[in-house]
Structure formats: C-alpha cells, structure tokens
Amino acid sequence: MATGWQDIHDEALRRIQSRDWLPGALIPNEAALAREFGCARATVNRALQSLANAGWLERRRRAGTRVTLSPQRRAQLAIPLIRQEIESKGQIFSHIIISRQNATMPSPQRAALGLQDAPNAQHVQTLYLADARAYAFEDRWINLAAVPDFVAAPLDRISPNEWLVQNAPFAHGTLDYSAAPAGTAAPHLNCQPDTPLMILERRTFGLDAPVTHVRLSYAPNFHLHLKI
Amino acid sequence: MATGWQDIHDEALRRIQSRDWLPGALIPNEAALAREFGCARATVNRALQSLANAGWLERRRRAGTRVTLSPQRRAQLAIPLIRQEIESKGQIFSHIIISRQNATMPSPQRAALGLQDAPNAQHVQTLYLADARAYAFEDRWINLAAVPDFVAAPLDRISPNEWLVQNAPFAHGTLDYSAAPAGTAAPHLNCQPDTPLMILERRTFGLDAPVTHVRLSYAPNFHLHLKI
DNA sequence: GACTCAATTATGTCTATACATAAACGTAAT
DNA sequence: ATTACGTTTATGTATAGACATAATTGAGTC
Predict the structure, then answer these.
(1) Chain B, 21-80: which CBs lie within 7 Å of strand C?
(2) Residue B176 to residue B166: CA distance in whole angstroms
(3) Which nucleotide is nearest to A45 (CA to C1')?
(4) Which of residues 45-84 of A touch strand D (CB under 7 A)?
(5) How many A×B Cβ pairs under 8 Å?
(6) Are B136 and B215 in contact (CB under 8 A)?
(7) How far, rounded to the nearest angstrom, does the alpha carbon of residue B59 sit from its chain's CA centroid?
(8) More confident residue, B9 or A225
(9) Cα end-to-end distance, chain B, whole Å
(10) What part of A 75-114 touches B (C-beta under 8 Å)?
C-alpha cells in the first residue's frame, strides 16, 4: 500500500469531492485513519493539515475534523510583477517614464497610506509596454521618507516597480481591483476617455512606514485570470 | 526559549523582511538552525516548509534553502459566495430570479466549458441584492447532464449559486475578472449601458463534466479587495 | 433545571531516529 | 575538455512515543 502523506491527502480529497464524506460531517479521527491506511498518526496529521489549510476541512481539538460546509475555495493570486506578467506570455517587456518629479503628496494618496503630515514624495508616471504595445499606465507616489534612495533610482533602466521590489523590504499591503473609465490615462493606452478599464490600486507598507501608492490602469481587454 | 515552529517561522520571516537574509541568498541549513534554536530538525523543517509554501523561500534537495529572489507574494482570494460577501458587510442578502428556462447552450458558453455537443441546459438570470439594493446581476448556464436535479431546485428560496455549492460536488474551475460596459445588465443595476462594471466570468467543472458557466456583472463601484 | 469542575478525547506539536531522494560535487575514464 | 559515475549532502518524509491544549462530556452539586 502506498502510504505517503500525499496519497492519504489525495484519497481524503477524493472522498470529499465524491461526497463520500458529506459537507459538515465528521470524518474518522486520526488514529482510525492511521489504522486504516496502515501508517503513523503523524502521517495522517500531515495530510489532514494540508487539506485544512486548503479549506477542505475544519479541525478543532477534541471536536474532531469535519468537511467544510461551504467549501469557500481559495484562489491564489500571484501579485502582478508586470515584467513577469508580460514575459510569461512570451512578449517583450519595456517601460517609458512619462513624468517624474518631487512634490508633496496629495490628500487622497496621503489618506490611503495613513500619513498625517505631507512628507516629501516623488510622483512618477510610467507606461508599461508589451511588445511595444501599451499594456498599463501607472501613476505612482513614493514616500521618500521610507525610501530616500529612490531619488537616485535609474528609472530609465529599471522600472519603478522593480526598483522598489529589489530595494525596499516590505511587509504588507493591500490591493484593490475595480472598473472605471480610462479618463486621463486614455491617451497613453490608445483608447477613449470613457472606455472601461480595469484599475488596480495598491498600497504598500514597509516594516515601519508607508512606502508607495500606485494606481495602475490596464489597457482595454485586460483579464485577471485565476484557477481554483 | 520559546521554540514552537511558529516562533521559528516568525523569526525567519523577520530575517527575510529585514533583509538580514538577502533575496537570493542561501540561508543556514536545517541542522544548523536546529542547533541555533535548540530544537529538533523536524521543527525547523515545519517552519521552513510553511515559509516556502507562502512563497518566501525556495527549497531544493541538496541545494539548500534560499530567499525567493522576487518575492512574488501571493494573495489569497476567497471565492465569492455572494451571500457571505454581502452578509460580512452587515447587509441583508436576497435574490430575485429574473428568468429561468431550458434551452440549448449557446456557442460561446459551450466553447468556454469545452463542450463538443449542445447538451440540454438551463439558463437562469438572477439579481442579487444587498439591503434591497442591486449588488450584482448574474447570467448563468447550467449543464443539465452534469446536474439533472437542478431543474427541481427551488430557486425562489435558495440562489442558484448556493444550490450548486451545496448539491454539485466540484473539483476545479477558473475565474476571470475584467472591466466592461454594463450593456444589457444596466437596467437591473440602475446604471447606464456604458457605465464601466467589474465582470466576473466563472467556469466550474465537476469531477467528470462541466457544470456551469456564469457571467456576473457587479454594480458600479464594486471593489475586489485583497491583502498581502 | 442550572451550574461547577474534573475526566476524557481529538488534535497540535516536539523529539529522536531512520531512511529516501534529488542534486551538486569530485574523481576517473574517455 | 567532456562524459560517466559514485559520493556527499540538504531536504523530504515516515515512525513511535510523549506531552500540551482545547473543548466536549458527564458526574456531582446546588
């Protein structure tokens, strides 16, 4: 009998998906499964933890393990590093800096980053290209108090996005996808101001301080694709 | 010394985020870390596996463990069970069936589900409401060959989405978010036909056969919010 | 019936040990 | 050089045993 934890994982998943184990129902405990599969309890534990982690099972001490009632499946969304997004499609990535200047950060961005005062900031507008065709337009504010070196970043050679990924350690952030008219991004993306575009707003925070606020307007027909 | 695997996980993550361990660099091997933390290798293994799983580390046999070069962070997106989406905001969920009829599935949906022939299908249009305000408009095709019982589903009491979640075991599917004009969904969502909306297209497959194709048009100002 | 508290139990985790396996390394043969 | 092959090494995984911890159960009490 093949009794790697993966095999137990797969068999348990099969029982869940085939409704052998019904949603909400208790499944046999670890000791029983270990007996059934002829392996140690730790091996069963590993398999079930993995399934719980993926959202198929809910486990509580003493109460046992049950199949998740509404299997609110989770999709993993890889955070778009635009270069990879483009190159993974076999296209050539490039970028153009539209504008770059120091300025005080405007209120909306300050609020989004939770900044009380108006720190020195740099405002960069970038156009990302896939095979020389407009892919996305980026409007970015960088908090220079968090990454002072950014003023010296050679943005002609490396995109703001990549420079920050490589040089600014970061802990967490938020993403916000929405739909909106192209507006001022229209001329850069070769569309009409009222063309619906997918918008990504991203806030990034370092270990201590807010780092950057980005509004990314994707070219028309962009799709955010996920598998579950 | 507190040496649960979580503690080791946290300390390792701290070293990554603080650039104590630089991107791309090798980190000490499990035996060395076990010595440092005064615990068994298995405990270190658990911590590092967890970090690798989350995308912070890359591990290869014999080659050791290194910090991911471009920490392509992953966000976990909970698949929208609309009821939960609405109720989690403290609003009251309800739905209205706009239309429901048997028909042969049209080509675009057939193609999306990879169906060769045109099986019997049911077409359901549903409006989802949050506190009696339009939240999303759903246009759904169900492959009756996969879930024949659907014809008897009491959709006045339970939404198509929920009925399928509860009654159709499913294995996998795809999600596609995009931006598009409201079009024919406009009157249901109280907006203009050219208002930009967030569109979710979902394909769901059972263990054997394709189950359903859904096009969901969210009301204006919908945001898909993720944390990383 | 309502409440308290101890016994029970399923999962959570750690340990020491062992062996499996992939991949890098070094050496020897071509 | 290049190739082939055995050695070394770091991770992957299994095991038995032990104790920790949360939570339900149930017995005893008011």
Answers:
(1) 38-43, 46, 60-63
(2) 23
(3) C11
(4) 46, 60-63
(5) 135
(6) no
(7) 27
(8) B9
(9) 30
(10) 75-79, 81, 84
Phi first, then psi: give them for residue A43, nearest 5 degrees.
-70, -45
- Chain A residues 171-200 with Cβ under 7 Å of strand C are none
Tens digit of each residue's pLDDT (9 = 90 or more) over B56-78: 999 999 999 999 987 666 766 76
CB contact under 8 A, B172 and A228: yes
pLDDT band, very low/low/confident/very high, at A192 (cuts 50, 70, 90): very high
pLDDT tens digits, residue range A13-38? 999 988 899 999 999 999 999 999 99
Architecture (CATH level 2) of domain A82-218 = 3-Layer(aba) Sandwich (3.40)
Topology of domain B5-67 in CATH is Arc Repressor Mutant, subunit A (1.10.10)
N residues, chain B: 228
**Is residue A182 a contact partner of residue A191, using CB atoms and an 8 Å limit?**
yes
Residue numbers of A between 49 and 78 with CB closer than 8 Å to B = 70-78
Residue B174 and residue A228 in contact, taking contact as beta carbons nearer than 8 Å: yes
Q: For residue B85, report the phi and psi dihedrals to the nearest 5 degrees.
A: -55, -45
Which among B181, B85, B13, B203 has a CA at the least distance from the CA of A195?
A: B181
> At residue B4, does pLDDT exceed 90?
yes
| Residue numbers in A near B78 (CB within 8 A) | 72-74
Nearest CA-CA partner of A164 in A134, A173, A178: A173
Per-domain residue ranges for chain A?
5-67, 82-218
Q: What is the pLDDT of residue B2?
A: 65
**How far is Cα B74 from Cα A33, in angstroms, rounded to an integer?**
33
Distance separating alpha carbons of residues A66 and A50, to the nearest angstrom: 14
Strand C closer than 7 A to residue A41 Cβ: yes
**What distance in Å separates the CA atoms of residue A51 and residue A72, rounded to the nearest whole number?**
13
Q: Which residues of A touch B173 (CB under 8 A)?
A: 227-228
